[in-house]
What does this fold into?
Amino acid sequence: MGNGVKTCIGVTDPIDPIYFPDLQQETSDMMVVVGKDKPYSWWLIPLKGNRLAWRVTYNMTPIELRSGYQVNSSDWGPDRVSDMVEACRDFVCPYGGTLGDIFDQTPRGRISQVLLEEKFYETWHSQRVVLLGDACHKVVPHAGQGAAQAMLDAISLANILYEIPSKSLSDIQTVFEAYKKERAALGKAAVQGSRQMGRLSAGRKWSESVVRTMFLNMVPAKIQQQIADKIFYIRPQATFLPFVEDRGSHKAKPQKPSTRMRTLTGPCSKHMTR
It folds into this structure.
């Protein structure tokens, strides 16, 4: 078991912008506060409709992670949020006031507490069963990679399954092996990247604070964007469907339509290459 965090998340009801002027901005700028003398960080993101999405994260020690996972894993839901909410009520809100003001604007049924841990698994499939997403590579939430990697797994698996020559167990096993070969290194990199991003964005050690200050204040925005572009360079589309236009400022890794699709579509396939 790797790193883990206890996280409380919620979305407020609409809030009067007079109290939170940032809600009226055209862009949604995430605010992150790292506790100086406490093992917490808290994150706020303005949404449409004058609402705020928020997250309070507690970085668990290895002992706490093992104990909490084994004893309380069935209790991480809306009914278990009171303790963490009360513990964080007096934390300073970057928009003014305290987090308690944000909590009071959030219906209790829209607040959840979850345990998030990181782990990369070596076993991805057996017989006719195959896994994807967090079942293969669990990530902590600091880099926004959980759902993204699950979708990339699904696309990769679908593309390879489309080419399967038969439903025999041997062909299924071959497909699953090809899927793991294509995605395992990227899944492991996502786990490691999320860990590093967590240290960069919310690490409390002196060395992590220095690195964060240097990265945010000394590394040019262009370089930061290039790092992000490299992470998302591999973002495949379904090869058995017509490709949609890649409208990103940084183009994705080139793809070709599937061999089977080119056979079925003939001359029309030339319009599918991107």
In short: The mean pLDDT is 81. Residues 169-202 form the longest helix (34 residues). The longest strand covers residues 51-59. Strands lie at 4-11, 31-34, 40-47, 51-59, 111-117, 119-120, 125-126, 129-130, 137-138.
